[in-house]
Amino acid sequence: MTAGAVKLRELRAGDRPALESLIRATGVFSEEEVGVALELIDAGIANAACGYLFLVAADERDRAIGYACYGHTSMTDGVYDLYWIAVDPRVQRGGVGRALLRATEDDVRRRGGRMIIIETAGKAEYEKTREFYVRTECVEIARIRDFYRVGDDKVVYQRVLDRPTAP
Ligand SMILES: CC(C)(COP(=O)(O)OP(=O)(O)OC[C@H]1O[C@@H](n2cnc3c(N)ncnc32)[C@H](O)[C@@H]1OP(=O)(O)O)[C@@H](O)C(=O)NCCC(=O)NCCS
Question: Cα angle vertex 132, ends 17, 113, to 5°?
Fold first, then answer.
């Protein structure tokens, strides 16, 4: 699968070291968050049907330079959560994040999804992340004040997907 110049593919066991190092290199995730991100990656490597879906962006040597992790939100009709998206800082601002998000949307549509929900933090370290979501046409629909800790809101973005038109 390719999106523009970015090669996108499925998650493979050999991606783990590159994914761990790029997750850490972003500098925005706490040790606890890194642990959760890796747990999901390990679950996806162990069993592709674990409920977490992955898309990996790879460079010309097939090394992982970014990824998205998403999944169906239980007890909903066609709602998906984007749990994680991260791009190697060395290639940020080059369209990899947008390609991952668009490919995630395409896959969610294919699975009958109609909406993607993204939760992120309101703290200053995530200002660039929030800018990314706004620039990629995600809409802020809710904010829970002091959710993560006092002074750090939960910010919820929504991306409504057009249903594919019937042939
Ligand atoms: C958020 C993230 C995934 C974006 O990936 P990316 O490959 O740099 O994004 P892109 O190059 O595709 O940028 C897409 C749009 O977002 C904008 N954008 C991306 N990073 C930005 C930044 N730091 N400041 C302002 N705008 C930014 C781009 O300008 C672009 O908009 P444009 O096309 O209108 O110019 C990446 O910065 C990242 O990994 N951040 C750390 C991890 C994180 O916060 N993940 C999300 C929480 S789980």
Answer: 80
Residue nearest to atom 48 of ligand 1 (CA): 84
Rounded to the nearest angstrom, the gap between the alpha carbon of residue 126 and the centroid of all alpha carbons in its chain is 14
pTM of this structure: 0.94
pLDDT tens digit sequence for 65-103? 999 999 999 999 999 999 999 999 999 999 999 999 999
Nearest CA to ligand 1 atom 33: 135
Which of 26, 55, 84, 93 is the pocket-test mutation for ligand 1 (most atoms within 8 Å of CB)?
Answer: 93
Q: Where are the domains of the chain?
A: 3-160
CATH number among 3.30.450.20, 3.40.630.30, 2.120.10.30, 3.40.50.720, domain 3-160: 3.40.630.30
Q: Give the pLDDT confidence of 120-160 residue by residue, as tens digits.
A: 999 999 999 999 999 999 999 999 999 999 999 999 999 99
Kindly report the number of other CB atoms within 10 A of residue 79's CB atom: 16
